[in-house]
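[step 3/7] fold_predict: job queued, chain A
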Amino acid sequence: MYAIIEIAGRQYRVSPDDQIQVDRLHLEPGARLSVDRVMLVGDGDRVEVGAPFVPYRVDMEVVSHDRHPKVISYHFKRRGGMRRTIGHRQRYTVVKVKSIRKGDE
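[step 4/7] structure written:
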């Protein structure tokens, strides 16, 4: 069984026991999270597509917080001595999918 869910404006394909990286969530590690913005659920040959959502719920648990590798951005203009280097590390949260179930259960 798998589902397409929306978290913080982004869509993810998840299955039970998957670990995914999502944009930083302000929850402590070990906290439970339940997502009801499920757009599609597939189970073998049966697929349910929502308009825009289906009545399912995905239960997850926050595993950890971390940061991606550093990305270096360099700005340069050929006259005037303008040079600028910027480094950025995006924060993310690792969540583990516990279950996919009907929303009214």
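[step 5/7] annotate
The longest strand covers residues 56-67.
Strands lie at 2-7, 10-14, 19-23, 32-35, 38-43, 46-49, 56-67, 71-76, 83-88, 91-102.
exit 0
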